[in-house]
Amino acid sequence: MSLAGAQIKLGVALNRDGRICIPLKGSPSTHILKPDIQRLWGSVQNEAFCLALAKRMGLPVIDVTTGTAGKRSYLLVKRYDRVEIDGRWRRIHQEDFCQATGKPPTAKYEANQTGIRGPTLKDMFDTTRRLTPPTNIVRLLDMLVFNVLACNMDAHAKNYSLMIEASTVSLAPLYDVMCGETWENVTKNMAQTIAGKSRGDHLKGRHWQRFAKECGLNPRQVLARIEALAESASDHAEEAAADVAAMPAGTHPLLKQAVEAVRKRARSIINQLNETEAEPTAESGASSKNTTTPDEEETPTSTISKK
């Protein structure tokens, strides 16, 4: 397999007849082929489901389909960093957020064993704000929230990228998303913390508020956007599973588990959004800010209703 990463994958090209070919002599690949992973049951349908769900929700996402070769299944991913011009494929320069923030690829996780702290969500929002048009901030927020809703524990800094062209820099679409809740042998800790929290089910409204303030976002708008995305994910989960079942590799028992995991996470997020911190008023001033520590934050006295 020719491409880097924990998951084995191969750069391939589709010819005009739709046949899968190996690019030679520096010719650019147009797609990435990901065979099924033996230690991760149903990995092909899992990733296809997550990306199909994002597409159903109207988020920017790469195009994927599935296929079979003998007894193996595979995911076929259209490369977002390729464009066809006058019958020739051209590469678009891209940088993931380790590259964009000057971190080595081994530091892709916020907490890692390299001795170098990996990019945080604040780092990513700061970089996006500095390099791209303002609309990309909303896109990045949507991607982050979707990864939480999809139970994607492996949403590290190399799984978000920037596309760099002559006249503009923009966020790449969603890619490399899998629902980790479907497997027992996968960590349930997120690759990047949100207000110090590493578990998606532990996120309450106040954590999203703190995240918003840290990243320069409007807390009220962030809470509203999270609720809308959570409702959309729950509403479209069954449709996304049906989309995957209709692909060439067919359905898989894991799809039912993925649908249930997304709906459970969406319910958890929505139910806990109303546990927010009181915001200071003009009369009370800065002294009314909530000063609870992380150890104290689970007490009912530190929360108010969002309504």
Notes on the protein architecture:
The protein is of the alpha+beta class and 307 residues long. It has a single domain (88-302), classed as Phosphatidylinositol 3-kinase Catalytic Subunit, Chain A, Domain 5. 33% of the residues lie in helices and 14% in strands. The chain is built from 7 helices and 10 strands. The protein has helices at 43-56, 97-100, 121-131, 135-149, 205-214, 219-245, 254-272, and strands at 10-14, 20-21, 31-35, 64-69, 72-78, 82-85, 88-91, 93-96, 161-164, 169-171. The strands form 3 sheets. The protein has a 5-stranded antiparallel sheet with strand order 2-1-3-5-4, covered by helices on one side. Strands 8-9-10 form a 3-stranded antiparallel sheet. The chain has a two-stranded antiparallel ribbon with strand order 6-7. The chain is globular, with a radius of gyration of 20 Å.
